[in-house]
């Protein structure tokens, strides 16, 4: 009976369904293990997982941010995956509780139909220009980990003092703060908003499918927002879960994922020049210094501060 | 005081059972969640500080103000559209009535996030309609903001008003109408002074549902409010925002929502308490004969409202037949979306129908007796039940879902992982439909009928089953239809409670739309529409055939 | 001019001809009563006049104006509904004020007129009550007040007093009659109380299964019923059947229950079978040995049963061969009637109405 | 054993004492009638017995069993509701079968009994009709059939015949009475028809404003009313007031309208003011010059008005000083009464009921 049960795996996935579909199909085909996906926003899924901690219902949680992985590490079972060594140490848990999969760079998206190629902002600083007032779509940090990262990145970039937060406030006054991240990239893609602050992969997907979107890496530097996978401690199908974690980090799997959905992998051994999209290698992009751990630690207070700014500028 | 036609044993049993059920599946799960709002950060002491703190914040004051203003406006407009529409459907010869009625409930089948998506495509800043309007010189900006929200609520929620009111219009005895005319009042005057007041319980029931839904709904303002603060959205973010909200604030906002809706309910109770509405109808009133010009106007109005409500719908259907490149819509036609959809959707489709059917059935089973007790008794306990039974509507589905998981994932009763917990969540959440719709119609049924039955030796509980339920049929079906349809489009509780096997169409749509699968989402919506419209049209037909002999 | 002219009016519900080719003229200011067994079409006829029931055929005029095409609220025909049709959403006073408000009567006049109407039906103190707080009879009185207060041109009253006690009924019918007279309203009145019908009507129509059976003044209908049906329906009667056994000219002898009755039946001949009506009150028990009044005839009967009805006492007598006779006496009959089984009954042959077998 | 014992029962609706401390014993198999003006609490009392109205105080027993705490459906007290309460969603036959089905009577017995009950109320052909297709009187008959068919232990009839024509009413009340007798059902009957009450009741209670005014056999109530209210309420009467001007022993002379009436009023003394009731039917016009019957007295009056009521004719006479007298005559009064203004009226002093001024 245990083996029959092991023939499936319950995956809590915060990824969008196209990616899920792609990976799950390939996984089942290869391993014979059926996937029972539970799909939802990462906040919802984490809430669900922690609500169920007395009697976990899921085996895997996949597609949630580093900070969520870290803050819920206690719910995970350690597993030293076969492919884990290909992944730089900064993208995985030292105790093997979780492993990073995708790296999202925070970028600017520009709808070139609404803002011609050359006239868009080049840097975070450019966004402060009053001419963009009401034209920049952003996600409410209360509902998006990457938005939180983004705001704190800017605070740090601009000096992490009162003047820096003053600038952040000015930026917020220029932005439309939307309730979820998909509204930003589909909004820019469909022409609702000329500019958006979003994730790298979205720009590539829309552009590669013919939308007038340009992905702009800010010249003053950006940061990597990582998301990853963890095995839920005490889940019903622990063996299948391990098989899935091995699968998801394999090089060929990552290539397949990249080709279809432009997720920049955490492992650094893919050759983007041989893959569609012409995505620049991570090493060619200017990264700003970002003290992720301390910002995660200061999160409640910082969130409150951000919230105040959002409220003040609405 | 005991009310006629009513044995305390039956009323007591229903009240206690219902309160027990709700205590177990509503209050107990919610307790843990709202507890945080009255505790200080250490969690050890009671405090009102959280409330003071939240209420002192201008942002939340504005959120509350916006929510109430939009809710009130939407309620008024929806009622003003819904009541005349119900009247047209009940009393005028409108061609294609069963179809129209089925179509009228369809806006509810479309999950609000899907219709919001479609509406943005049509009426957003870069929307097709927006641009067309601008091209011909109409200064239309976009659908975002309060007016847009009111419009969208009106066009999706009017069935809440239409269904109970329609049943109510059919339960008015024609003789009071005749008496009014006989005393020299014009038809319009009779309508205003007699008919409308008599169907008021139903109108108020519908209006209450609309008001509560607008307060609780976050799917639509999530998109269309843009960055205008709205209470439900803020509450949602505090509860399940990815960056982890503040449980105390979340609790306060949730309780605020409950307080607003409870106040609305109390106003309604107060209005109904002193009045009676039974006219002793023996048959549905006949269709009115009206002049051709009025008839054309009525037909245009009825079909016009429904057609307008179906605009996002048609958009979705059209979109589903467009070819998508990834998330990007093209102008070519194709069946690609459906092919992609059916690669995975048969399961969710069946699940949706099964779960919605089960929830509608369970909702009737639980809600109709509650509605009966609320209308026919005036005990304190019944008043409490009234408020508790209305609460699920004020609680976001996500919140209820989380509460249920915490409560029933382990311990004395383990329910998570199966279909039952979904059905329980749906039954609880949609309970107000069944309770309101049945209590509204009951106001118009003369209690002496029940007395006659009891007097003939049929126990009150059997009387309820054998006599009252058939008499209430119009209202009951209305409630069941609303439950079925809204469960089919339920997302927020489902997302917390479903397990892989029990994924629904709404989940499919949500996941697809969240990412880059708008095409698949539209296709899923189209399929859902098609499979829901059939049973709806069938029910309407059936009811109409019974119309001669039933209230 | 609000005479009512009903011409060839019919209405069928499926196979049931509820109103079947009725023609009737009611004069201006007349108090006209419809009588007939339950289900004969009285309500249907009133509803046609009020405008709530379509005509299959025929026309209705108020004066010179054809009204059957007019919308009901423009006919100015106030109706008291058989089921009252009180508005449950309005208080008693608002129910009564309803028609006045529809007529845009000034607010202060409304208050005064409503108060007067409520006083008329003895509900002065009940204006603020809700209908569900009233008894059956009180509800019926609200319906009456609501209709009378608008002083319509035509009054249609469908058993308006059925749930009132005798005293109140007499009083109310007096009030209605008086109002009707003083305002010269044409009234169509449906009642099941024959005494009431006889007491207040100018004319009466007896209906049967959708048709008019007889129309006439009260006394005429009572004393000269046109058919056995009318005779039986209008007050109690003895409807006897027998064969003509002899007699001369108009005066015949008819054998019933082994005895001979004398009566006038022009045109009947020996051997014909006749029906005839003999009212209980024209039969007088004659003291043993006393003679019948002059011109009266006698029959012998046995007392079977006495029923006390207040002012009236009814006796059931048997004639022989199973034929029963009802006899009415004012007050209690004398002791000798109650004791002795055998009684002689006197009657005036001129008061018997004979019918041809149909 | 289904005698009904009502002990100290009260019920108030707000300030209205609808039933006020009523105590009443109805014997097993008795046909008991409640009479009283509209709104006096008759329906409320029946509803208390049926179990649809809570008692504020008091207790009700059926036989030895206290039933006021029993749920209504277990009381086996069949009620005909004043507003019929016909189930609109069932056909006529199904309405009648309703109680039988609840009692799990076999299907074929149901058909037979329903058919019989419908025949009883003359609705044989109407079984398949829907309630909305019936006239008011037909609906009322369905209510009667529905109640009688279950043959309950106690019958509660709330004006069950108010919407039926006289003929049918007499027939129906006979049927009800007969069924009640043959099944030994205890019946509580509310009616507004005093004649009906007198005709079929074993005993009658007259109610007034929630209280019992008098309980007794029909003749007793009619002939010996306990109060002016009962005298006036039970049938028409002349309620006169005057001062005692003389007399001997129990027999007194009382002056009214300038004339003396002779009557018995034990305990009354010279100068007392008395009320007394003089029924219209005990006043007999005496032919000019003829003597009054032995032991009877005479008063002089003037004829003012004649009203034809069928079997009865009512005359209004004046005594002088504005006092009016109602006189009833069986059949039409003789010609001389109608012509002459002045009439001598004879009456039997023993038939006058005197009341102390209260
Ligand atoms: N729910 C109520 N609230 C207030 N008063 C009420 C209520 N029900 C009845 N009453 C009052 O109680 C009194 C008794 O009512 P009930 O119905 O018993 O009268 P009834 O004798 O049957 O009269 P009727 O002959 O007119 O039917 C009436 O004055 C009535 O107005
Ligand atoms: N909607 C209907 N469908 C079928 N038959 C009907 C309908 N309405 C009335 N009838 C029948 O028509 C006939 C006349 O009905 P109506 O109500 O006029 O009688 P009525 O003389 O007022 O009787 P009652 O004295 O009992 O009130 C009845 O036999 C009734 O059953
Ligand atoms: Mg009628
Ligand atoms: Mg009553």
Task: Walk me through what this model shows.
- The complex is a heterotetramer, with one copy of chain A (314 residues), one copy of chain B (551 residues) and two copies of chain C (358 residues).
- Helices cover 39% and strands 20% of the residues of chain A.
- Chain A has helices spanning 2-5, 17-31, 42-51, 66-71, 145-157, 162-174, 181-190, 200-208, 238-248, 251-261, 292-297, 299-313, and strands spanning 8-13, 34-39, 60-65, 76-77, 98-111, 136-139, 175-178, 195-199, 213-216, 224-232, 264-265.
- In chain A, helix 2 packs antiparallel against helix 10 (251-261) and helix 5 packs across helix 6.
- The radius of gyration of chain A is 20 Å and the shape is globular.
- Chain B is mainly alpha-helical.
- Helices cover 72% and strands 2% of the residues of chain B.
- Chain B has 26 helices and two strands.
- Chain B has helices at residues 8-35, 49-56, 58-91, 97-105, 112-123, 128-135, 146-170, 174-182, 187-198, 200-216, 219-224, 231-240, 247-273, 292-309, 311-320, 336-342, 346-376, 380-390, 397-408, 420-442, 447-455, 460-471, 473-488, 492-497, 505-514, 518-546; strands at residues 322-325, 328-333.
- In chain B, strand 1 and strand 2 (328-333) form a beta hairpin.
- In chain B, helix 4 crosses helix 26 and helix 17 packs across helix 20 (420-442).
- In chain B, 63% of the residues are buried.
- Chain C is an alpha+beta fold and 358 residues long.
- Chain C contains nine helices and 20 strands.
- In chain C, strands 6-7-8-3-9-10 form a six-stranded mixed β-sheet, sandwiched between helices. In chain C, strands 13-12-11-14-20 form a five-stranded antiparallel β-sheet.
- The longest helix of chain C has 18 residues, at 166-183.
- Chain C is elongated and about 75 Å long.
- Chain C starts with a strand and ends with a strand.
- The model of chain C has no long low-confidence stretch (mean pLDDT 89).
- At the A-B interface, strand 1, helix 2, strand 2, helix 3 and helix 4 of A face helix 3, helix 12, helix 19 and helix 25 of B.
- The complex binds adenosine-5'-triphosphate (ATP) (2 copies) and magnesium ion (MG) (2 copies).
- One magnesium ion binds at residues 42-43, 82, 158 of chain D.
């Amino acid at each position: 009976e245990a083996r029959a049960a092991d023939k499936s795996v319950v995956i809590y996935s915060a990824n969008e369904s196209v990616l899920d579909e792609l990976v799950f199909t390939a996984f089942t085909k290869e391993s014979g293990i059926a996937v029972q996906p539970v799909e939802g926003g990462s906040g919802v899924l984490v809430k669900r997982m922690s609500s169920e901690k007395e009697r976990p219902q899921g085996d895997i949680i996949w597609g949630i941010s580093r900070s969520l992985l870290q803050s819920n590490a206690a719910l995970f079972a350690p597993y030293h995956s076969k492919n884990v060594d290909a992944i730089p140490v900064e993208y995985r848990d030292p105790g093997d509780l979780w492993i990073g999969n995708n790296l999202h760079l925070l970028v600017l998206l520009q709808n070139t139909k609404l803002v011609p190629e050359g006239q868009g902002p080049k840097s975070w600083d450019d966004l402060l220009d009053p001419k963009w007032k009401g034209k920049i779509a952003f996600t409410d940090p209360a509902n998006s980990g990457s938005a939180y990262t983004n705001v704190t990145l800017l605070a740090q970039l601009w000096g992490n003092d009162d003047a820096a937060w003053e600038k952040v406030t000015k930026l917020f006054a220029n932005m439309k703060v939307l309730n979820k991240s998909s509204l930003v990239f589909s909004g820019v893609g469909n022409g609702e908003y000329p500019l958006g602050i979003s994730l790298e992969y979205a720009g590539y997907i829309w552009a590669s499918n013919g939308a007038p979107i340009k992905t702009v890496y800010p010249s003053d530097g950006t940061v990597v927002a990582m998301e990853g996978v963890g095995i839920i401690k005490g889940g019903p199908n622990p063996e299948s879960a391990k098989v899935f974690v091995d699968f998801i980090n394999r090089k060929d799997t990552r290539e397949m994922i990249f080709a279809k959905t432009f997720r920049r992998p955490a492992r650094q051994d893919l050759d983007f020049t041989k893959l569609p999209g012409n995505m620049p290698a991570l090493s060619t992009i200017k990264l700003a210094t970002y003290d992720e751990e301390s910002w995660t630690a200061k999160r409640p207070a910082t969130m409150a501060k951000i919230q105040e700014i959002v409220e003040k500028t609405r | 005081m005991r009310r006629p036609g009513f044995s305390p044993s039956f009323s007591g049993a229903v009240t206690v059972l219902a309160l027990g059920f709700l205590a177990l599946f509503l209050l107990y799960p919610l307790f843990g969640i709202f507890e945080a709002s009255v505790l200080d950060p250490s969690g050890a002491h009671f405090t009102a500080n959280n409330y003071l703190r939240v209420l002192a914040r201008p942002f939340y004051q504005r959120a509350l103000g916006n929510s109430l203003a939009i809710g009130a406006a939407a309620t008024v407009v929806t009622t003003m559209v819904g009541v005349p529409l119900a009247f047209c459907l009940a009393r005028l010869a409108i061609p294609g009535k069963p179809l129209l009625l089925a179509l009228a409930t369809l806006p509810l089948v479309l999950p609000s996030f899907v219709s919001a998506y479609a509406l943005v495509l049509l009426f957003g800043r870069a929307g097709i309609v927006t641009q067309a309007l601008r091209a011909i010189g109409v200064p239309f900006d976009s659908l975002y903001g309060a007016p847009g929200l009111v419009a969208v609520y009106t066009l999706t929620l009017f069935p809440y008003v239409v269904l109970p009111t329609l049943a109510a219009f059919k339960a008015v005895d024609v003789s009071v109408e005749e008496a009014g005319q006989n005393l020299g009042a014009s038809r319009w005057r009779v309508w205003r002074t007699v008919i409308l007041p008599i169907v008021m319980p139903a109108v108020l029931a519908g209006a209450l549902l609309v008001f509560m839904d607008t307060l609780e709904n976050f799917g639509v303002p999530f998109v269309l409010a843009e960055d205008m603060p709205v209470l439900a959205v803020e509450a949602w973010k505090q509860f399940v925002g990815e960056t982890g909200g503040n449980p105390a604030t979340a609790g306060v906002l949730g309780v605020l929502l409950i307080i607003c809706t409870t106040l609305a309910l109390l106003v309604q109770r107060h209005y109904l308490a002193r009045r009676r509405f039974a006219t002793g109808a023996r048959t549905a009133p006949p269709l009115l004969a009206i002049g051709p010009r009025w008839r054309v106007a009525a037909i245009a109005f009825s079909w016009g409202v429904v057609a307008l409500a179906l605009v996002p719908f048609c958009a979705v259907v059209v979109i589903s037949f467009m070819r998508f490149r990834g998330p990007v819509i093209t102008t070519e036609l194709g069946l690609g979306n459906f092919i992609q959809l059916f690669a995975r959707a048969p399961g969710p489709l069946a699940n949706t129908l099964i779960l919605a059917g089960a929830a509608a059935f369970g909702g009737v089973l639980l809600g109709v007796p509650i509605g009966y007790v609320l209308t026919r008794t005036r005990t304190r306990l019944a008043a409490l039940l009234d408020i508790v039974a209305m609460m699920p509507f004020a609680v976001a589905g996500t919140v209820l879902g989380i509460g249920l998981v915490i409560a029933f994932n382990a311990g004395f009763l383990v329910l998570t992982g199966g279909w039952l917990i979904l059905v329980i969540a749906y039954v609880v959440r949609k309970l107000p439909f069944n309770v309101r719709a049945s209590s509204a119609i009951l106001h118009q049924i003369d209690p002496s009928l029940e007395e006659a039955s009891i007097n003939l030796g049929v126990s009150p509980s059997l009387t309820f089953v054998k006599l009252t339920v058939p008499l209430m049929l119009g209202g009951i079906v209305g409630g069941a239809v609303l439950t079925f349809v809204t469960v089919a489009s339920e997302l927020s509780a489902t997302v917390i409670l479903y397990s892989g096997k029990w994924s629904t169409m709404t989940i499919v749509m949500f996941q697809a739309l969240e990412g880059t699968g708008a095409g698949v989402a539209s296709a899923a919506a189209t399929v859902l529409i098609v499979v829901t419209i059939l049973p709806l049209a069938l029910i309407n037909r059936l009811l109409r055939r019974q119309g001669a002999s039933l209230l | 001019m609000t005479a009512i002219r009903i011409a060839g009016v019919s209405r069928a519900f499926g196979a049931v001809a509820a109103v079947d080719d009725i023609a009737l003229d009611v004069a201006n200011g007349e108090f006209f009563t419809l009588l007939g067994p339950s289900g004969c079409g009285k309500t249907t006829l009133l509803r046609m006049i009020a405008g709530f029931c379509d005509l299959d055929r025929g026309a209705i005029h108020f004066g010179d104006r054809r009204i059957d095409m007019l919308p009901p609220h423009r006919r100015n025909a106030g109706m008291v509904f058989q089921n009252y049709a009180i508005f449950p959403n309005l208080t008693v006073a608002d129910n009564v004020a309803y028609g006045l408000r529809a007529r845009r009567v000034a607010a202060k006049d409304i208050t005064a007129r409503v108060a007067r109407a409520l006083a008329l039906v003895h509900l002065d103190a009940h204006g603020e009550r809700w209908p569900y707080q009233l008894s059956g009879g009180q509800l019926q009185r609200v319906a009456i007040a609501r209709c009378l207060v608008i002083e319509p041109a035509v009054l249609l009253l469908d058993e308006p007093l059925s749930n009132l006690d005798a005293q109140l009924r007499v009083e109310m019918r007096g009030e209605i009659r008086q109002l009707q007279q003083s305002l010269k309203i044409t009234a169509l009145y449906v009642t099941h109380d024959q005494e009431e019908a006889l007491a207040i009507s100018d004319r009466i129509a007896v209906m049967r299964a959708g048709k008019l059976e007889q129309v006439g003044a009260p006394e005429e209908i009572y004393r000269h019923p046109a058919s056995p049906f009318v005779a039986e329906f209008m007050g109690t009667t003895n409807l006897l059947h027998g064969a003509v056994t002899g007699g001369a000219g108009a005066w015949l002898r008819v054998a019933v229950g082994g005895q001979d009755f004398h009566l006038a039946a022009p045109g009947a001949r020996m051997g014909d079978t006749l029906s005839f009506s003999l009212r209980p009150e024209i039969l007088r028990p004659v003291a043993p040995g006393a003679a019948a009044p002059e011109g009266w005839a006698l029959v012998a009967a046995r007392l079977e049963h006495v029923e006390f009805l207040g002012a009236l006492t009814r006796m059931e007598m048997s004639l022989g061969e199973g034929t029963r006779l009802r006899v009415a006496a004012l007050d209690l009959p004398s002791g000798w009637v109650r004791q002795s089984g055998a009684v002689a009954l006197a009657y005036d042959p001129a008061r018997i109405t004979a019918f041809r077998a149909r």
